[in-house]
Amino acid sequence: MVNMISQFLSMLVLVFGIASIIAGIFTAYFGSGKSRAVGGVLVVIGLLVFLVFLYGAGLLTSIIGVPAGILNFQGTIVQGVVAIVGALIGALIALGIFLLAIMKA
Questions:
Q1: Tens digits of per-residue pLDDT, 21-67?
Q2: What counts of helices (H) and strands (E) characterise the chain?
Q3: Rounded to two decimals, what is the model's pTM?
Q4: Distance (Å, whole) CA 3 – CA 17
């Protein structure tokens, strides 16, 4: 049960961070006025959450230290990261084809 919670939290943090960064970039690029500021805030929040993920994955141990407790994702992230990377690549390919079809029409 603890392994499932740890894997759930690790993927939740990873996907939230990546989605916030991507949404922030799109909002800052295509938005105007206040929406550009909101996009910048989304990028900053996404980067902070992604740093939390990197800490939990044990990739920042030389800087911050070893993660303890519920943020220790070291043993649970490999399968989840591979699945998420595959899903993101598939989603980006689909988005690219969609945008290409819309721009050509």
A1: 999 999 999 888 888 999 999 999 999 999 988 888 887 877 877 77
A2: 3, 0
A3: 0.69
A4: 21
Residue with tokens 């800087």: 63
Task: Region of 33 please: left (phi>0), alpha (psi -120 to 50) or beta.
Answer: left
Gap between the Cα atoms of 97 and 102, Å rounded: 9
- List all residues 6 or more positions away from 92 whose beta carbon is below 8 Å from its beta carbon: none
What are the Cα distances from residue 14, in Å, to 4, 26, 33, 44, 97?
A: 15, 19, 29, 14, 25
Q: What is the sign, positive or negative, of the torsion defined by CA atoms of 87, 93, 97, 103?
A: positive
3-state secondary structure of 74: coil
Distance CA 64, CA 50 (A): 15
Tokens 């894997």 correspond to 7
